[in-house]
Amino acid sequence: MTRLDATRFVVQHCADAAIVASLGHPAYDLFAAGDRPRNFYTWGSMGLASSIGLGLALAQPNVPVVVLDGDGSLLMNLGSLATIGLLQPPNLIVVVMDNELYATTGGQPTPTASGADLAAAARAMRIERATTVRTADELRRAVDGSTGAGPRFVVAKVSESTPTVKPPLDYVGIKQRFMAAIGSPEC
Amino acid sequence: MTTDSSATSPRQPAWALGVCDGADAAGITDVVYVPDNPLSFVLGDFERRHRHIRLILATREEEAFGIAAGLYLGGRRPAVMLQSSGLGNSINALTTLVVPYKIPMLVVVSMRGDEGEWNAAQAPMGQAVRPILDALAIPHVTVSAGEAARQAVIDAAGVAFASGTPRAVLLPRRLTAS
User: Fold this and answer.
1) CATH number for the domain whose boundaries are B11-161
2) Which residues in chain B (89-108) have CB-CB distances under 8 A to chain A?
3) d(CA B150, CA B153)
4) Distance (Å) from the C-alpha of residue B159 to the closest C-alpha of chain A?
5) Which of A79, A82, B107, B162 is deepest in the core (most CB within 10 A)?
6) Predicted TM-score (pTM) of this structure
7) Domain ranges of chain A
């Protein structure tokens, strides 16, 4: 399963969800998989995708929120797992596209290439619904089903796929379109 | 919620009551924070008198700015409260998320390293806080007296949410350690 395959799969199965993508390849693949107003593409703030998704999930408890993170990105902000485990937002799913590489910066291996287990880290921080998946079928089982029993954390082991498109660099436009789509007032 | 600042005691300093009253009056809905000694008065007052404002603990300041950004995207009016040392942990979140996406928030900074500091290791960052905020074009005010805190917070939050920018209110040690 390539990261683009997995991203397409998540977009199709989480049609109602607000999706927050980490910078670089996860955001490029989300754009390629299907640009939609409920996509929030980050262009920086490496590591913060799960934090943005957490704030969004707390603000909009009736909106399913999916975060498309990277293994290198999440490793920059492992404390986020403790905060998600503390607050237990039931409408949050964090999907880590784990290619075991810093692919956006040239393919250097991350610690997950040497066995660092992000799902175990999530469980240790009280995110009990934490799994590692390797196939589309396992990914479907991980993201399907009802919310309401705490946050979910899915490590999708993926192979690298070279992105060919990028979302627009219109930061404010991305924000305004996203907020309008989920019904947030600009306050 | 109403306030009675005449009830101020050493446990309830006027500046802390003012920060909380100002945040409430400005419509702040959520406070994302990393703990700090002076801020404990603020957090305690939120819990006592402003329970409708949600307190969210972050493990690190940069994370707090990410959570606050998500709260804003979801339609809330967030504040981030942190010690000045933690501003150093937050610069990438400010420069690549909060500023370019024009995400407004109130930022309340408990100062270390300014006048009255006993720990020299805090001084370099403390002295750099204002130049850093200036370099990022993030407006800031310094509260010089307890009775000025409420209005400073109201003004900063009001302009922040009207203009799509973060605004900072700095609480100097001379105020918070007195």
Assistant:
1) 3.40.50.970
2) 92-93, 95-97, 100-103
3) 5
4) 11
5) B107
6) 0.96
7) 3-181
